[in-house]
Amino acid sequence: MRMFKSRAWFPVLMGSFLVAYVVWPLLNMFLRADWGIVASSAREPEVLGALWRSIWTAAASTGIIALFGTPLAYLLARREFRGKSVLEAVIDLPIMVPHTVAGIAVLLVISPKAPLGALIKSLGLQPINSATGIVLACIFVSIPFYVDSARDAFAGVSPHLEKVSRTLGGSMPYTFFHITLPLARRGIFSGLIMSWARAVSEFGAIVIIAYHPMVAPVLIYDRFQTFGLKYSSPIAVQLICISLFMFVTLRLLAGRIRIGRGESS
Questions:
Q1: How many CB atoms are located within 10 Å of the residue 28 CB?
Q2: First vs last Cα of the chain: how many Å apart?
Q3: Rounded-to-integer distance, Cα 191 and Cα 184, Å
Q4: How does pLDDT run across 12-66, given as a tens digit for each residue?
């Protein structure tokens, strides 16, 4: 134990720098915020609407990514095929592409003059300056966070367990939903959290596709441009509080699921 403590000081010291680098600016924002404005803005319908829109559009985009991304992640984890590296690079591309560029790219595809945009409009949905546009923008930038996490989670499940299930008569869907998916749920749940969090924080792509109706990051930018830092930081504080609450809640929920299933770590 003494040896462990003597060797642990270095990683603790190095890790503390990064933790402090995250906590310091955020804590400084809380300490310098005008809490009178924070309280008054918390009652503004525009602020409440933007915060709620950020939450539910992020949840909607995450649900769509999970629906289409789970089979893709399983394929990438279990199969080797020509072009797999290229496909994985394409999936990761939204991480590297500037998000304003991502917004322009998505806009060109979902514009009412484009075939996909015309199709969306024929379904009675408005692809530009709407909640639909916000969801479509969030999907583009959040895909890698879920697919990569789910792929790694599926790769961590032993294929032998699946073979045993199939040998005992379990169909492929039964094996997937009763063996593979439960064993990979930790990584999948983590991917869902990260994908949702990425969508909540998105600004660059959304502001290109849907300045209105405003989500919280766009409203913060709008207040900063119009009224300055004093009236934009209170909304930022509220968004951080909501995000922190959601993160802690989801992490606790994930921990309880692990404990309920008797996992040690």
A1: 10
A2: 20
A3: 11
A4: 888 898 999 989 998 888 888 888 888 888 889 999 999 999 999 999 999 999 9
For residues 47 and 101, give the distance between their C-alpha atoms in angstroms, rounded to a whole number.
27
Distances (CA, A) of 220 to 14, 23, 51, 240: 33, 20, 10, 12
Return all residues near 265 (Cβ < 8 A) that are at least 6 apart.
258
pLDDT tens digits, one per residue of 119-151: 999 999 999 999 999 999 999 999 999 999 999
b vs e for 190-223, b when ≥16 Cβ sit within 10 Å of the residue's Cβ? bbbbbbbbbbbbbbbbbbbbbeebbbbbbbbbbb
For 199, left (φ over 0), alpha (ψ -120 to 50), or beta? alpha
Q: Find out whether the peptide bond into 213 is cis, omega within 30 degrees of 0.
A: yes
Give the whole-angstrom CA distance, residue 88 versus residue 95: 12
58: amino acid identity, one letter: A
